[in-house]
Specification:
Helix content: 40-55%
Strand content: under 5%
Number of strands: 0
Length: 117
């Protein structure tokens, strides 16, 4: 049985196709754990620029690296409509244990005292 020559471009295309399929099929662990998109809080307030908060107040500027709005404010982080997103919101620091202790279990009261006015 005689085998024909396989062109270099076919080999390169096959390798390229295998790499694309492998990258597409590779599990996205960070997306599964954290979500691939920003919360509706970040999307409206920062991305769309409606009442930007990342540069106002000590807490917002110190925690701007993350999407932590829901920890202090509650609300619905997946709602796309303002009224729905704001349902269930509470005053920031209304419940220090709920708001701060998940990230700062040992000193949340001390840390929160710096933000109270």
């Amino acid at each position: 049985m005689k085998m024909g020559k396989v062109s270099g471009s076919r080999i390169l295309f096959s390798i390229f196709l295998m790499v694309v399929v492998a990258l597409w099929a590779y599990p996205r662990i960070s997306e599964g754990a954290c979500g691939a998109a920003a919360s509706s809080c970040k999307n409206c307030h920062e991305v769309k620029g409606e009442k930007k908060v990342n540069a106002s107040g000590a807490w917002h500027t110190q925690h701007a690296f993350g999407d932590f709005c829901v920890f202090c404010h509650s609300g619905n982080t997946t709602a796309a409509v303002k009224d729905e997103a704001h349902k269930g919101m509470v005053k920031p620091l209304a419940d220090l244990n709920k708001s701060c202790s998940s990230c700062h279990p040992d000193d949340f009261e001390k840390r929160a005292a710096g933000y109270k006015k």
